[in-house]
Amino acid sequence: MYEREETIAVALLAALCGQNTFLYGPPGTAKSLISRRVACAFQRPVYFEYLMNRFSTPEEVFGPVSIKALKEDRYIRKTDSYLPKADFAFLDEIWKASPAILNTLLTLINERIFKNGENVEEAPLRALISASNETPDINQGLEALYDRFIVRLMVAPISQPQHFERLLNSRPSRSDVDVSAALQVRSEEWHAWLEKIYTVTLSPETLTIVHLVREQLAQRLDEIGVYVSDRRWQRAALLMKAAAFFNGRTETNHSDALLLEHCIWTHRDNHQAVMTIVADAVKSVGFDSGYSLAEIDQKKESLDREINNELFYSADVYKTEKKADGEEVFRLILSDSFYYARRQSGDVAVFLPYKYMKSLASFHPLDRSGNEIQEITCLFDGQGTCNLTERRSDITRTYKAETRTYTPDILFHKGDRKGNVNNRLVKSMATSLSGIKADLASILRKVTARCANLESQLDSVFVPVEKTRLAISGILEQRESLKLRIKDCERLEALCR
């Protein structure tokens, strides 16, 4: 059973909590063998197996009609050794069955009852495993039945060369394995466990993961086409609780939430997308601390902005003057290198309106009276430098254009600390920072304490180690991100000193 460990484990988990499983994969990938092996885990189960085809009749699945009863004008099936009396069943190529079979299956596997003539019989079915190399097509009326298979597992051909070579050199696998009676699940145990599974609670982390996955599926519905019914979410939650219970826990954790990847995909084309969504959600959720980290981040970011706005210049402050009308201008002295200055008999002051500094529009400077000097055209380059172009004529009456540059003086650069800041305001901001830092330190202590023996906490017999490491990496990232947030608070505290 090479490369089938996870598939068998999850299929067994589904059977232990009374859920149905769908195995998807090409022929010859041991789907029927998986079903038989799962049944071997239980004590003396009544097992039923059938390969569906388009010519299958209800008699072959639910039992033949009783001739004796028919003579008495009663329509009753002889269900012994057929699906209605089975504890476990395997239906291969299930979607090839006729509507008559599929409609009866719908009630049997969901409500565990079988209508036999005028009688309604309780079906002892604990778990049904079905298989196919295709998923049901849309608009064939099979959505309701497909929705009853809570666990959906991909069974691919062996991929690792060493496993394939071992398969070639080994005997064909037996369907009946020798499991000691002490290990086999007894009927009374199974019923008792079902009741105990319901007492397991979903952890805050698990609920957060479920909400994240649900939101992603809703946002990407048009892209990947995955709809998950409320019934499926409820049964998926039961599967996670069962995983926690059989791992000896009373509350679910991240590794149990990874099982969602087997519950919510619908087609081969969206299987990988669903796995990624679940993995990303699990990795992004650390331990719940009782604090809202989003609110703390919001407060810290708000304080960060306030500190920078109140204590530091957010942009360069230029040396400017204000005209009588209140307009802000740069004062520029033109030397006699400008023809306009020579005409005024020496150095002359002109004024550049500040409002043009961030503009790409050309303009004319102003004289002392506020009149535009038409001979000179100015244009800021967007980098703080202004180009002044003077057009003048010489004795030959030909016009020439000469350009000079001017860079305004900066009084305070962006990021310089302001003077005369209100000390009460600074103290208030520092106090708020101390509170945020204390909250983050409290969260870090809780997360660090829970990180002790993290691998053993997240270890699960139903989830491969490489997948639980994903959850571990997410929790360790949470711890490191908390340390970075605390360091950022210390940086802001230093700015307030």
Give your account of this protein's structure.
The chain is α/β, with parallel strands linked by helices and 497 residues long. The chain has four domains: 1-185, Rossmann fold; 198-285; 293-311 and 417-496; 317-412, no CATH class. It is built from 18 helices and 15 strands. The chain has helices at 5-16, 31-39, 58-62, 67-71, 99-111, 143-147, 161-169, 187-197, 204-219, 221-224, 230-246, 254-257, 268-284, 293-311, 339-343, 423-451, 454-458, 465-496, and strands at residues 21-24, 47-51, 88-92, 113-116, 119-122, 127-132, 151-154, 317-318, 321-322, 328-334, 348-353, 376-380, 386-393, 399-406, 410-412.
What would a concise description of this structure say?
By secondary structure, the chain is of the alpha/beta class. It has helices at 5-16, 31-39, 58-62, 67-71, 99-111, 143-147, 161-169, 187-197, 204-219, 221-224, 230-246, 254-257, 268-284, 293-311, 339-343, 423-451, 454-458, 465-496; strands at residues 21-24, 47-51, 88-92, 113-116, 119-122, 127-132, 151-154, 317-318, 321-322, 328-334, 348-353, 376-380, 386-393, 399-406, 410-412.
Topology at a glance:
Elements: H1 5-16, E1 21-24, H2 31-39, E2 47-51, H3 58-62, H4 67-71, E3 88-92, H5 99-111, E4 113-116, E5 119-122, E6 127-132, H6 143-147, E7 151-154, H7 161-169, H8 187-197, H9 204-219, H10 221-224, H11 230-246, H12 254-257, H13 268-284, H14 293-311, E8 317-318, E9 321-322, E10 328-334, H15 339-343, E11 348-353, E12 376-380, E13 386-393, E14 399-406, E15 410-412, H16 423-451, H17 454-458, H18 465-496
Parallel strand pairs: 1-6, 1-7, 2-3, 3-6
Antiparallel strand pairs: 4-5, 8-15, 9-10, 10-11, 12-13, 13-14
